[in-house]
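Hi P.,

Sorry for the delay on this. The queue was packed all week, but I finally got your sequence through. Input first:
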Amino acid sequence: QVQLVESGGGLVQAGGSLRLSCAASESIFSKSAMGWYRQAPGKETELVARVTNDGITNYADSVSGRFTISRDNAKNTVYLQMNSLKPEDTAVYYCNAAGRRPVPYNYWGQGTQVTVSS
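Then the structure:
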């Protein structure tokens, strides 16, 4: 059974930092593009950052320059380093694993709350 287990959320003051971690099942990690998404209250889920299995990254404009996504293939873990946090970053953050082989798949973690106080 595929699992994505997130950790690292919490409450932080504006300007502070947090690092989110997502440990994925070994069976899918190395072949998956890994992403972080977020959903704020009353808003749609949006892509925050994504890293492909060969290390190509992309970021939402709203977090570019503040957030960094990285993956450790030896640990089957993807990270999201969040710096210079703003109140508008407050959301539930979800880890995602997506790939195409042997069949297209898309898995989600349970989510972790990030709250940034002003």
